[in-house]
Design goal:
GO terms for molecular function: 3'-5' exonuclease activity; DNA binding; DNA-directed DNA polymerase activity. With 375 residues, the protein is of the alpha+beta class. Helix content is 17%, strand content 42%.
Length: 375
C-alpha cells in the first residue's frame, strides 16, 4: 500500500476512531487501526474493541498502490498530531512495517496483517429510520448522566430505546441507576414502528456523542436489530459507528414515575442549582445529602456534617402546599437541574419517602425522577 494524505484529514479521521481503541489490550491487533486504500483514491479507516466499531472514509491526495494494513492507532494518532500543519503525509507499507513520512520526518512502525483484524458482522438490521443529529445529541445529553456504572446490573449500563403507542406513537430513551431516572420522549420517526426494545451500551453512547458534535446540522441514519445498532453520520463516505447491544432486559421503569404527587414546587433551576452547589460544599463525600425544608413560597436548603459544620440557604419559590422536609443527594439533584434550560423547573413532591418528579413543564420532552435520601 502507498498513499498520500493531508495531515488535517488524517488527524481528524484518527481522532474519531482512536478513542474506541482500549489502551491496554491482551489481543495485540485490537490496539491497531485498519487502513484500507483503494484505487479510487479513498482511504477507509476502522477501529474496534469487539463490541464497538467505528469506520470512516476519507479522500486521499493520491493512492499510488492500493492495499490494506493495520498499525497502532494511538501511535499513528500521536504522530499525526505532532506533524507540522499543512504537511502531506505519505503512508507506505513493506516488510511488515509502515513508513510514515512528512516533510523531513520519517517513522517506521510495526504492522499486523489485515486478515487478522476482527470486523463486527452486522447481519440483518431490519429497523431503519433517521433522526436529526441535534435531536439525537439532545436525547443523549438529557439521559446519559443517569446511566448506571455498576457492572453487576449490566442491563442498566446503557440508554434504553423503545417505541410506545400511548396517546400517540413516540420513541423513548431512558436511563436509570436505581437512584434517579431520566426519560426523553420524541415523536416516533418513520420506519421505527415495530422496533425491538434495545439497550445501547455506555461506551457506544459516549463515542456517538463525540461524533455527533461535528455533524449537528445533518441527519443520522439509524439501523438496528435486536442485537446490533448502526449509526451513519455524514451520508456516503461519512462516519459509521456499529455497536453490539446489551443483552438483557431493562426494568419496567414506568412503574417508578409518580403520577399522584400533589405538592408542586416551582423554582428557577439556575439559582436552585447554585444554592445546592454552595451548601453541598459542607457535605461529606459519603453522604452528599442536602435537606430541603419547604414552606409557603420558600425553600430552605441545609447541610450539617459532624466534621465540617453546617450550611443553610433560603430561596424564594412558588409553593403553596403543606410544609415538609425531604433530603436528596446533592450531586444527583445538580445533575438533573443542570439539564433544565429555562426560567422554571417543576418539582412534583409527595412526602419525604416518595420519589420526586422533576421537569421543566408538562410539555417538556425530558422528565426526571429522583429518589429521596434520609437526612
Amino acid at each position: 500500500m502507498k498513499a498520500t494524505i493531508e495531515r488535517a484529514t488524517l488527524l481528524r479521521c484518527l481522532s474519531h476512531v482512536q478513542s474506541v481503541v482500549e489502551r491496554r489490550n491482551t489481543i495485540p491487533i485490537l490496539s491497531n487501526v485498519l487502513i484500507d486504500a483503494d484505487a479510487g483514491g479513498s482511504l477507509k479507516v476502522m477501529a474496534t474493541d469487539l463490541d464497538l466499531q467505528v469506520t470512516e472514509n476519507m479522500a486521499a491526495a493520491s493512492v499510488e498502490m492500493p492495499g490494506a494494513i493495520t498499525v497502532s492507532a494511538h501511535l499513528l494518532f500521536d504522530i499525526a498530531r505532532k506533524l507540522p500543519e499543512g504537511s502531506q503525509v505519505s503512508l507506505e507499507t513493506a516488510d511488515n512495517r509502515m513508513a510514515v513520512k512528512a516533510g523531513r520526518s520519517r517513522f517506521s512502525l510495526p504492522t499486523l496483517p489485515r486478515d487478522d483484524f476482527p470486523v463486527i458482522v452486522e447481519g440483518d438490521l431490519p429497523t431503519s429510520f433517521e433522526l436529526p443529529a441535534k435531536t439525537l445529541a439532545e436525547l443523549i445529553d438529557r439521559t446519559r448522566f443517569a446511566i448506571s456504572t455498576e457492572e453487576t446490573r449490566y442491563y442498566l449500563n446503557g440508554i434504553f430505546l423503545h417505541v410506545s403507542d400511548e396517546d400517540q406513537p413516540v420513541l423513548r430513551a431512558a436511563a436509570t441507576d436505581g437512584h434517579r431516572l431520566a426519560r426523553f420522549t420524541l415523536p416516533r420517526p418513520d420506519g421505527a414502528e415495530g422496533m425491538p426494545d434495545v439497550i445501547v451500551p455506555r461506551k457506544a453512547v459516549a463515542e456517538l456523542r463525540k461524533l455527533l458534535e461535528e455533524s449537528l446540522d445533518a441527519n443520522v441514519q439509524i439501523d438496528l436489530s435486536a442485537s446490533k445498532i448502526r449509526f451513519t453520520m455524514g451520508g456516503e463516505g461519512g462516519v459509521v459507528l456499529t455497536s453490539k447491544l446489551i443483552d438483557g432486559t431493562f426494568p419496567d421503569y414506568s412503574r417508578v414515575i409518580p403520577t399522584g404527587n400533589d405538592k408542586l414546587l416551582r423554582i428557577d433551576p439556575r439559582s436552585f442549582y447554585e444554592a445546592v452547589d454552595r451548601v453541598a460544599t459542607i457535605a461529606t463525600e459519603k453522604t452528599r445529602a442536602v435537606k430541603m425544608s419547604l414552606e409557603t413560597d420558600k425553600v430552605t436548603l441545609s447541610v450539617s456534617s459532624p466534621d465540617n459544620g453546617t450550611a443553610a440557604e433560603e430561596l424564594a419559590a412558588d409553593y403553596g402546599s403543606d410544609g415538609f422536609e425531604i433530603g436528596f443527594n446533592a450531586n444527583y439533584l445538580k445533575d438533573i437541574l443542570g439539564q433544565i434550560d429555562g426560567d422554571t423547573a417543576e418539582l412534583h413532591l409527595a412526602d419525604a419517602g416518595a420519589p420526586t418528579l422533576i421537569r421543566k413543564d408538562d410539555k417538556s420532552q425530558a422528565l426526571y425522577v429522583l429518589m429521596p435520601m434520609r437526612v
